Amino acid sequence: MDLRQRFADPTEQQDAAGRGLQAGMWTAVPCTIVSVDYGKQTCSVQPTQKVAVRKPDGSQEWQSLPVLPDAPLHFPGGGGVSLTFPVKAGDEALAIIASRPTDSWQQSGGEQQQNARRMHDLSDAFVMVGFRSNPKALSGMSSDAVQLRSDDGLASIALKPNGQMDINTPGAINIAAASDVNYTGTINVTGDIVLNGISLKTHKHTGVTTGGDNTGGPVS
């Protein structure tokens, strides 16, 4: 039995009531991605903080919170451009709990009337990925550049305050443009450049003659 049920203490009663209200008010909770709907940019997440539940016999049991479904997933964006991530199940995230219902806004966008009176409810979560617990912290983070990188650090694009940009990848870099690719500056290449199967380093020319004539086209 809870001892507060045996002794009448108005101050303790008020404190208990306040703590009870706080216990039902959610603001933010760490969670794990369960599934992602890329079509709607929403996800289902499992909160990772268990809650203590007092049983009828007075004992206490730690229980998992329910999965939060269909929560809007945050991708940074604005002005007609966005940055997206291949979010997958198991990724760590933070669920931000709205102070009022978000159903009408999520369905229709714009300014909407509230369709319920709930406040700080777990069902009104917005999810942000990128937060990490200590065991999943990234290694080799740059302290002098902003990076777009793979978690293992093998592939990265880094921009430094002095304007220098570094690109590193163990694989290929593919560029597809509907129009011309224009470049101004000097290109220093270690290796070779291959254009339509013709090596810039080892190609030969046809129609070679002495004198002032031009050679023929290059061959692979």
TrEMBL record:
Superkingdom of source? Bacteria
- Which residues belong to any copy of the Phage protein Gp138 N-terminal domain? 29-130
UniProt protein name? Phage protein Gp138 N-terminal domain-containing protein
Q: Name one Pfam family in it.
A: Gp138_N
Q: Which InterPro entries match?
A: Gp138_N, GpV-like_apex, Vgr_OB-fold_dom_sf
